[in-house]
Design goal:
- The chain is an all-alpha fold.
- It has one domain: MFS general substrate transporter like domains (Growth Hormone, Chain: A, Up-down Bundle).
- The chain contains 20 helices and no strands.
Length: 455
Amino acid sequence: MRAAQGGQEPRTRTGAVAAVERSTIRKISIRLVPFVALMFFINYLDRTAIGFAAPNGMNTDLALTAAQFGFASGVFFIGYILLEVPSNLALHRFGARRWLARIMISWGIVAALFTWVQGFEQLVVLRFLLGVAEAGFFPGAILFLSFWVPARHRSKILALFYLAQPLTTVIGAPLAGVLINQHGVFFGLAGWRFMFLGVAVPAVVVGVIAWFYLKDGPKDARWLTDAERGWLTEELRAEDGEAKRPHTSIRHAFGSGRVWLLSIMYFGFIYGLYALAFFLPTIIKGFQESAGVKFDVLQQGLITAIPYLPAAVALWFWSRDVARRGLRTWHLVIPAVAGAVSIPLALFAQSPALTIAIITITAMSIFSALPNFWTLPTRFLSGAAAAAGIALINTVGNLAGFSAPYVTGAVHDLTGGYQVPMFIVGGFLGLSAILMLVLNRQGSVTTRDPVEEAP
């Protein structure tokens, strides 16, 4: 039977080796993954905080149109994209501990400056600088985890890591509502300004902790026994030597058709993700006019969080199925199609409850696909090629981070509603499904045999 990754034969494990494997993966799951997930939680909260601020005073105070808000939301990704690949290569060169800590402290300082923004131009500049500061964090975190986890365990580990993203909204949306309600408690700041400050400070604090807490690789992990450190080092070295030695150059990553197909596929998923993240709070606020109801800021935050809790559950169980069966084409195609169909339908629902129910299906679909998508690049890339390839995929995908909010806002201003923008979102998710089928037809990077169950 082929192994789950790259087609190499599985290495025989004795009972003693299996025990060492179980204890090693358990320690990594407990010590590293929750901390890196916390970093991701803060990262996603800081970049999407503007979506909570917009309908709760920011757009009014800064006199922003929907198109201006969309542009300011999306310009973040221009700075992010410009430094994405260089940042990930720097992480590969200087070490994950230093580079991830540097990124967090930098973006925390910039995020705090949003507290005193005075107009559209300043907002655009700060969003651009926030993207520059955050560049490389997400692909760096993915690469960092790949330094610690053998390929057959990555689906579950990435699922644990990715849980931070939907949980950011489950926890972060009500938290943002609480902070926004604190009008004037800190030097007379408006609630939305205090919210920006409140979500920025943790980035600096956790960044400082990361400098001392994280380690660059298993050889530096004193919390592993000699046997565990030896097993993990040998396992990762053997994987790299057996399956990936020809694909370690940066040139290979940039010239690989599979990398570019994955990049465009990721663009479709991210387009849907950020259309939801930036405009869902505004759409929910619109319920008050269409349905004749009134929500306070905390209630709006709780309603915004509703789709993301089922999304977290779906993410976990879908990834467990991937771990049992091996990654199949339909593990990515079905979520993409479900998202493509559901998100345009949400705007035709006749009640707020039905709208949220349909959007919940969309969120479940997108989040079920994302962690399993990220197991694909490291199946055929390693070393500098993995650093460059993951960063390139994330860079192209995050072009959607700019285009989704800007196009959504601009088309809303032109058409007077969100129906057309949501059909555009559905179209990009449908494109992701098609590209996955094309990728599998040209040369499968998925697995048809079950992945060995993680101990």
